[in-house]
Amino acid sequence: MINIPFENEITSPLQDLLVYNFILDILILILILILIIVIFNRYIYSLNLNLINNLISKYIPIKFRNWFNKYLKTGIDYNNKFVLIMLVVIAIWLILIILLKMMISS
What CA–CA distance (Å, rounded) separates 79 from 84? Predict the structure, then answer.
């Protein structure tokens, strides 16, 4: 029998399903880690801004303090919107991947 180069890797359908299931498990793990990073980033960002705001309120004159607080509030608003969008996108991807995993497993 002559070996054809395209037929070197013959896998069974069960083996293919197990490989795809493993890949989906890895994707779910990555998405959960990204979700945790986004949540912690929001809290670390707010803690850092509070620290900077406390330092500025002690050592900077009132004129600059008001200017800084205006930009600080817009930065907090943008951060909250970004985190909300990221949470929605990650949740949608997680749901889709879990549905795909259930379809492969059944």
Answer: 9
